[in-house]
Each structure stands twice: as C-alpha cells, then as structure tokens.
Amino acid sequence: MSNQPIPPNLNEETTHAIISDGELFDALQALEEHFQQFLSFSKYAPDLTYFVSRYDLIDVIIQVHKREAYDRFFHRMEMSERKRVALYAFWILKFKPFKITDVRFLDDDSENVNETFAIYLICAILFYANKLQKTAVEKSGFYQNMLYAFRYRSFSVDSMILFVEAISTDTFEREYNGIV
Amino acid sequence: MNKKKVFGLTLEEAGRIKSSLVRWSGVSRSAKKQRDGSRFCDALEEGAKLLCEDKTFVEVFDVQR
After folding, report:
1. Helix (H) or strand (E) holding A161
2. pLDDT of B50 strictly over 70
3. Contact indicator for A125, A168 with CB cutoff of 8 Å
C-alpha cells in the first residue's frame, strides 16, 4: 500500500460512489462491440439469435467499477487494462449473461458461449501485449484446459487477475524459462 | 436526448436497472446485518416488489417460452 496520506475528503465514512449512467452506458457499448466482434470471429451466422441478460451485464459492470474504486481508495492505484479484462472475464463467468437461443447452433460450443467470450477478452489483451502466437489457439491444449477450468473450476477474483497478468507479462518467462 | 440503444437499452433504461440493482444489494446487506426475522421478511418483500417493478420475471418467462 502506498504511504501517501489519505486525502482529507476520504475517510472511514467514505462510501463507494456508484458508477454514473454515462459511464455505465459507455461500458455497455464497449461490451456490445466486443461481443459482436467475438461473434463475427466465431462459427455463428450473422443472423444468430441470442439472449443477453441485461441485469447480469449491468451487474458485471457495477462489480468491476467497485473493484476499481477499491484499488483507487486502498492502494492508490489506477487499474491496468489487464486487471480490468481479468475482472470482466471473472464476472462474466460468474453471472453468465449471454445465451445462444438459435436452434441451429444449440450444441456444446453454444453452451460455453460465456466461457469462450471470456477467453476472447483475455486473448484480446494477449494480442495487444504481443503474446499471442499465430498458431491456431483453439486447437491448443492450453485453450481446452482454460475452457474446462472456466466452465467447471472455481476461481477467486484475485486468482483470475494473477492468471491474466501472468500469461500477459514476462513474469513466467523470466523466472521459469526452460523449466516447462 | 440520447436515444441510442445498446443491447436494446437506452441510457435511461440502463440507469433504471442500475438503480434497482444497487437498491436490491442495499436491502440484502441490511437484512443480513439486522439478523431479525421481521426485518428480513420486509427486505424479501421489498426485493420481490423491486423484481416485479423491473419486470425481471417477465423477462425470464419470455425466455422460457
């Protein structure tokens, strides 16, 4: 934790300021753009029908915003994109706001739409960090393990953040290069 | 006035859902804190009202159909 003194306007009586409507709408818009892009990369037809639980989606954004406020207040830190993506992935896995309702595509893959969307978000941050190799990611064992873990295993918020930071930075390559 | 829609929601509708979620979480926390039967029932009733107001059940049943 930073040693900077707590600003006088922040004290133990301070409560979390809920995200504003404008910020919420911007976050929703960004998520919609990402989801549309994710669908365009997937096998689904352009006229795919799907259901989005808007309550769950807004709850996802509120939870991420709360964590950002927590980091800002207790650690004096602005959240990095990696952490933000990890939080979105975590809460999407928790609330599962998306559901494919198109009868043409009802199979195991469509049941995993929330998990694959979470992986898509993580892959997007890996791409920007230049950590995504150009091999077919979907065929790799790592992808399958990640999908299985996201579907059936239990994560905490912090473990998800640690996971995304570990695979999107040089941490493991520096410390454990050549061991695996 | 901003009438742009995201996931079928206008800015005002998104704000209304947000407020209901925030209110619901407040009710829930208060109920746990009080550990009092009658207060807990009040909280449940309040929660049920909120859910009906916001048509959560209607949405759920629409999906089922």
Report:
1. helix A157-168
2. no
3. yes
DSSP E strands, A35-117: 50-52, 98-100
Taking the CA of residue A15 and the nearest CA in chain B, the distance in Å comes to 12
Residue A68, number of CB atoms within 10 A of its CB: 17
- For A34-55, what is each residue's pLDDT tens digit? 999 999 988 888 889 999 988 8
Q: Would you call A51 helix, strand, or coil by DSSP?
A: strand
Rounded-to-integer distance, Cα B55 and Cα B57, Å: 5
The alpha carbon dihedral of A156, A159, A161, A164 has a sign of negative
Q: Which of A59-63, A67-71, A98-102, A124-128 has the lowest mean pLDDT?
A: A124-128
Inter-chain touch B54–A57, beta carbons under 8 Å: no
Distance from CA of B59 to the nearest CA of A (A): 9
CB-CB under 8 Å, A19 with B6? no
Asked if A28 and B18 come within 8 Å (Cβ–Cβ), the reply is no
Q: Any idea what DSSP says for residue A9?
A: T
User: Is the ipTM, as predicted for this complex, more than 0.85?
Assistant: no
Cβ within 8 Å, pair B6-A25: yes
3-state secondary structure B6-42: ECCECHHHHHHHHHHHHHHHHHHHHHHHHCCHHHHHH
